């Protein structure tokens, strides 16, 4: 195992991180404008539309920031744990990066020109310029090329070490890459065969139900594509930072396999109120959705077992004595821990969203947006920040200074306060029926709109505090990338506890797991998808492409 990422691989990873943090800056500014408009106290200048700003915010933060950061982190993780990339894999990684960047620029230009104000979900019948859809295609294809480089390095490692389990962090990165490739088949399908021909005028209609179904085939596993890199840090990196050990290598691998199996065939739980899908198939996918609770609880058990074992080794007594022994002054631990804590209410909200009954109360209200900001914008993003605090200086040959460490903890507290206010207000007013995505000016004559105003103001206050947090993280990122003192910053990789059971090789038997995954997808989607095609509206010309 390498102790340091090769400089050539490091440049590839850094290129991805630079794009991610530029997206954070621009998307964060759009988010600030959005909550100010929503409060009713601000009007956008220069004829900029509210939904245009909302699209910028969603696409840059939900798609660009996350995808570039994750691929950069995973390139670095595989290079660190499985060895320096071979030249062909590194070249493929760079090709994937430039294809993704080209697609991102194409989509961004169309959004800024107000030719693609279709939100980050880009549902039909909203239509964007064909360049936007082609740009999205490039982003997906570029990510496949980069992911292919990772898989090639994993296969090479396995050939060089027959009969041995791969490094845990590499295995986790490959699971997440496979999840991404399988999930993006859905969004690639709807873009290439429906939305792109439609926007070019080659067909006059698309089937909206099929389009939405293909999007949510992708849209829900997208959440786990965001989340699993945070889990990688929680499972493998945090134990090393605190001075403890990984509770169980086998449990970590099994939980990631279960996330792969149960995160993809569940898209219908985002479509519970839609006609055209039989209720029995919705119920099946709701059941599969709730199965993901199992690896989530496994993760919580493993993490807190690691924390307790460390605390006991330091002399902690009592039920929660270990809590005081954790290194609260280390931003590399404290920032991701705040993200872990946020995942408790975020997970509870997710169970509500996935419930066939309770979803009826919150569907299409701003409750969903509040949940989204607890999961992605708190649990995931704070963990990404925590990763950046050691990964960026590791790759740039610099160090995380005491000053930056303290500022990083301040940044996390500012973020947590701002998000608690904003997301809390979203959850509360969502229960009162406030619609998702709407601006203050679009409420019209809704009789309850006046009751929503205090919550909208609270969202603006929380959003403003969050923007201050974005300014802080950007300052820290620039410092660590370009100005921090030269030195050696550790890429922490935890070791498995001595008492842990030996990892069984069946956990890396891809024939088994990919077969089960394919079977689950076919069971969940084949019949309802056939029903959609057979019961398509008469003259639905979009179906000539299928």
Automatic annotation (TrEMBL):
SUPFAM superfamilies the record matches: Cytochrome c oxidase subunit I-like
In which broad location class does this protein mainly occur, judging by the first location in its UniProt entry? membrane
Q: Which GO terms describe its molecular function?
A: cytochrome-c oxidase activity; heme binding
CDD domains under this entry?
A: ba3-like_Oxidase_I (cd01660)
Domain (Cytochrome oxidase subunit I profile) spans: 11-546
Entry membrane topology: Multi-pass membrane protein
**Compartment(s) where it occurs, according to its Swiss-Prot or TrEMBL record:** Membrane
Q: Name one GO cellular component term.
A: membrane
Q: Which UniProt keywords apply?
A: Electron transport, Heme, Iron, Membrane, Metal-binding, Respiratory chain, Transmembrane, Transmembrane helix, Transport
Which residue windows are transmembrane per the record?
12-37, 49-71, 92-113, 133-156, 168-195, 215-238, 250-268, 288-310, 331-352, 372-392, 412-433, 453-478, 512-530
Q: Name one Pfam family in it.
A: COX1
* Keyword Transmembrane in annotation: yes
GO BP term, example: aerobic respiration
**Matching InterPro entries, A to Z?**
Ba3-like_Oxidase_I, Cyt_c_oxase-like_su1_dom, Cyt_c_oxase-like_su1_sf, Cyt_C_Oxase_1, Cyt_c_Oxase_su1_BS
Similarity comment:
Belongs to the heme-copper respiratory oxidase family.
In Swiss-Prot or TrEMBL terms, this protein is called: B(O/a)3-type cytochrome-c oxidase subunit 1
């Amino acid at each position: 195992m390498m102790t340091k990422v090769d400089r050539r691989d490091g440049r590839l990873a850094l290129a991805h991180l630079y794009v991610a943090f530029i997206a954070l800056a621009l998307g964060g500014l759009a988010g600030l404008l959005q909550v100010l408009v929503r409060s009713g106290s601000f009007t956008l200048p220069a004829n900029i539309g509210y939904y245009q700003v909302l699209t910028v915010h969603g696409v840059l933060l939900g798609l660009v920031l996350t995808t570039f950061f994750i691929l950069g982190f995973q390139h670095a993780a595989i290079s660190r744990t499985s060895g320096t990339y071979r030249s062909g894999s590194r070249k493929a990684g760079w090709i994937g990066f430039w294809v993704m960047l080209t697609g991102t620029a194409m989509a961004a230009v169309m959004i800024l020109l107000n030719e693609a104000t279709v939100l980050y979900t880009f549902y039909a019948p909203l239509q964007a310029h064909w360049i936007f859809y082609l740009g999205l295609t490039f982003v997906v294809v570029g990510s496949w090329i980069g992911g292919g480089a990772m898989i090639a390095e994993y296969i090479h490692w396995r050939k060089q070490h027959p009969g041995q389990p791969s490094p845990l962090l590499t295995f986790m990165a490959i699971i997440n890459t496979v999840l991404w490739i399988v999930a993006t088949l859905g969004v690639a399908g709807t873009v290439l065969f429906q939305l792109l021909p439609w926007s070019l005028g080659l067909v006059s209609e698309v089937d909206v139900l099929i389009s939405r179904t293909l999007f949510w085939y992708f849209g829900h596993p997208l959440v786990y594509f965001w989340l699993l890199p945070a889990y990688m840090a929680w499972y493998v990196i945090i134990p090393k930072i605190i001075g403890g050990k990984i509770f169980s290598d086998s449990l970590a691998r099994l939980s990631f396999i279960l996330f792969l199996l149960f995160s993809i065939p569940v898209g219908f739980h985002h479509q519970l109120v839609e006609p055209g899908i039989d209720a029995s198939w919705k119920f099946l996918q709701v059941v599969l959705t709730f199965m993901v609770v199992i690896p989530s609880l496994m993760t919580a058990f493993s993490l807190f077992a690691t924390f307790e074992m460390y605390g006991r080794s330091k002399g902690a007594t009592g039920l929660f004595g270990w809590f005081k022994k954790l290194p609260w002054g280390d931003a590399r631990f404290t920032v991701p821990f705040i993200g872990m804590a946020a995942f408790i209410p975020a997970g509870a909200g997710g169970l509500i969203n996935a419930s066939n009954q309770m979803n009826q109360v919150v569907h299409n209200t701003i409750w969903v947006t509040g949940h989204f900001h607890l999961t992605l914008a708190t649990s995931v993003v704070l963990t990404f920040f925590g990763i950046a605090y050691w990964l960026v200086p590791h790759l740039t040959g610099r160090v995380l200074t005491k000053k930056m460490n303290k500022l990083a903890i301040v940044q996390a507290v500012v973020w947590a306060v701002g998000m608690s206010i904003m997301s809390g207000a979203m959850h509360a007013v969502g229960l009162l029926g406030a619609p998702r995505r709407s601006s203050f000016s679009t409420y019209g004559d809704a009789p309850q709109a006046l009751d929503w105003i205090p919550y909208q103001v609270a969202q603006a206050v929380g959003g403003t505090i969050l923007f201050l947090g974005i300014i802080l993280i950007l300052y820290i990122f620039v410092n660590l990338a370009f100005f921090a003192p030269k030195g050696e910053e550790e890429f922490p990789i935890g070791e498995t506890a001595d008492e842990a059971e030996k990892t069984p090789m069946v956990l890396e038997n891809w024939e088994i797991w990919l077969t089960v995954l394919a079977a689950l997808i076919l069971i969940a989607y084949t019949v309802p998808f056939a029903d959609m095609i057979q019961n398509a509206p008469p003259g639905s010309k979009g179906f000539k492409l299928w």
